[in-house]
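User: I'm putting together a teaching handout on how multi-component assemblies are represented. Below are the sequence lines for each component of a complex, exactly as they appear in our records. Could you produce the 3D structure of the whole assembly as structure tokens, so the students can see both representations side by side? Please keep the chain order the same as the input.
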Amino acid sequence: MRARGSDPMLVFATSDKGGTGRSVTSCNIAYRLCLRGHDVAYVDFDFGSPTAGALFEIGGVERGIAEGLGLHSYLQDQIGEPARLNVTRSTDRSQLRRDPPGSGKLVLFPGDEGGAEFGCDDVKVERVATLLSSLLGEFSVVMVDLSAGRSVALELALRATASGPLRNCAHRWLVFHRWTHQHVLAAGGLVHGAHGLIKTGGEWGHDSEALLASTRCVRTAVPAADRTRSGDRPPQSAWLDEQAVALRELAMANRIGAAMMLGQTPIEPMLQWREQLILDVDVNAQLANEATVEAYTDLARRLTDKSTWDIE
Ligand SMILES: Nc1ncnc2c1ncn2[C@@H]1O[C@H](COP(=O)(O)OP(=O)(O)OP(=O)(O)O)[C@@H](O)[C@H]1O
Ligand SMILES: [Mg+2]
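Assistant: Of course. Below is the structure of the complete assembly, with chains in the same order as your input.
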């Protein structure tokens, strides 16, 4: 199965800061999309730290695939095709080896172990466009995890989608950020700032309005709302409530308020200790919170729901 009755979608996962939860949330969304029947490619464009293999628990690929086989080598024109790994067949996690009925395939395109950041040039832009457009012929969702900040990966993605074969395909931009003062400012800057996504995209030939309409934020590891917190001292509780209001106002002022949100994830204790997929068995074993799986499922649903995107 390739798609579920809709056009294939290219999704870029970005963040201004590192450590926002971009990769963990993206791979969990990718997994939930598979359970919903989508064939998903997970493309590791975090060139400075290609560790997606660790999230899927693929032995030997935790820090990238053997040098000369992965995305770094492909983009530098050293190989014709980058390595691919079917997650449910290559993972060491036994519970992930089962393909529930109706689920799609999940394929990781890893970077090279020891691979580093490199410069952006026309050849690499063309190779990105060639790779991603070919993946869109095979997968219903192609999810690309970009290096944090205004990185080469972000520039490659913006340039590759501005013209050529990707110009007319559906591309979506997810900006991940923590729900803190500094992260809200940073994420607002990445979307709307002088050297941000919309401005830079416009300079590379994107229609700024369409790009903005294709962009949503994901708030990660959001602390529980006041009513569900327990054990807070009254002054602490009042301060936390004030901060919650102030943060919402800050997000609005930085134009990443509720209307720009795809969704949010709650703090998940398992993920505070270990970067991984949260499976239903983790909830059934009472290790993970049900709300975490619900959040990933909801993000997957909203991402592929036409009504989320006010675009033709
Ligand atoms: N909902 C959550 N609750 C608690 N911890 C989380 C949650 N989501 C992610 N984390 C944790 O936050 C840390 C950073 O996440 P992750 O590595 O995905 O961020 P990143 O933005 O991809 O970072 P980098 O820029 O280094 O690639 C990880 O330890 C991860 O397990
Ligand atoms: Mg990451």
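A couple of points students might notice: Strands lie at 9-14, 40-45, 85-86, 106-109, 141-146, 170-178, 215-222, 261-266. The CA atoms of residues 111 and 209 lie 32 Å apart.
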